[in-house]
Amino acid sequence: MNLKSFCAIHKIGVVKLDPDGKFYTTYFSKDEINRLHGLKALFYVDSGALVLGNSHADGGIQLLQPYKKEFYVSGEMEGYEYLSNPFYKNSYIQKASSINSNRTAGWTQIPTVPARCSVIDTRGSNCPFLMLSNPNFGRYIYNRYATFEYLNEILDLDELLSKQRPSMFGRLFRRN
């Protein structure tokens, strides 16, 4: 289900300009975030992970970030893409972009995921949301083809990032 339909059905969210004033996006209050949690549509991502769930064509997976006293949709990813650890070094972007240049279907079945790879499975939600920690740092989304072709290299690079900055979830809200 797409974001607009989901919000209309549940009567949540308001559309307004993003924090940079560049595009329109959906904002949620803290109470609405709690409703998303109650609907089992909210998933927390503190570190890098392989995300399973909807394709873009099926509504995707919405990325949420805190902003002042609200939370806004900062982007969308799709299932079987890898979301990196938070980072702040430009050298990471160059390495990640090189890996992510693979945009052709190189696999016909889902490969075995290494035990060291964190997985967030959103497939039970018709409109999943990922709450991102460390809002002041960037994240990188590897397309699904690059993810499966270079998953071990992505995990190696992500391990370097995991030592940069602690989680900020405790500062935002308590998880029950």
Give your account of this protein's structure.
This protein is α/β, with parallel strands linked by helices and 176 residues long. The chain is built from six helices and ten strands. A six-stranded mixed β-sheet has the order 1-2-6-5-9-3, covered by helices on one side. Strands 8-4-7-10 form a four-stranded mixed β-sheet. A hairpin with a 2-residue loop joins strand 5 and strand 6. The longest helix is centred in the middle third of the chain and has 11 residues, at 90-100.
Short recap of the structure:
With 176 residues, the protein is of the alpha/beta class. Helix content is 28%, strand content 25%. Strands 1-2-6-5-9-3 form a 6-stranded mixed beta sheet, with helices on one face. Strands 8-4-7-10 form a 4-stranded mixed beta sheet.
